[in-house]
UniProtKB/TrEMBL annotation:
Residues 7-141 form the NADPH-dependent FMN reductase-like domain. This is Flavodoxin. Pfam families: FMN_red (PF03358). InterPro entries: Flavoprotein-like_sf (IPR029039), FMN_Rdtase-like_dom (IPR005025). One of its GO terms (molecular function) is oxidoreductase activity.
Amino acid sequence: MRALALVCTLNASPASSSSHHLAQQVMTEFEGHGVRGEIVRVADHDVRPGIGVDLGDGDAWPAIREKVLAADILLIATPIWLGHPSSVCQRVLERLNAESSETDDEGRPLVYGKVGAVAVVGNEDGAHKVSADVFQGLNDVGFSLAAQAVTYWVGEAMQGTDYQDLDETPEAVASTTRALAANAVHLARLLADAPYSPS
């Protein structure tokens, strides 16, 4: 099994990122279940705005899309900005929307049988709202959602602490991350053994 994490921080590499940090922790948990993975920081790539599979002229999405289609689990990691997923995350969801019209030989969306999961960080309330937004987008295009398929950390409102700067991972976050990984892998294996029927 393979997992892909799309990190939707606004900061390109090599800038540090709490979203990237949490995504790495999720991927470590996936590895404990025998799932290999890769992390892609979307801001490092020229992903064009729009809803096409390939918008041409150097659009980097087609190469990222190939990684999405090769993965069994897609993790989207995003910070909270003004109570919403980042603009990079929104762009990823918009590009994934093109999958609504891409189907296999039996008429199923190409992402049927793939599991979606979410990781959220921020220094304000809003992790439930952000995960709900991303969950809806993933489900709309055909991803399946495991039980408790989100992990998150939010710091105290109007304070400047970043998740990546904590001395240790809070147990509540660690246990939620473990649950996300275990449940996502469980569902991905079930769907690999028993694919959805054509509609």
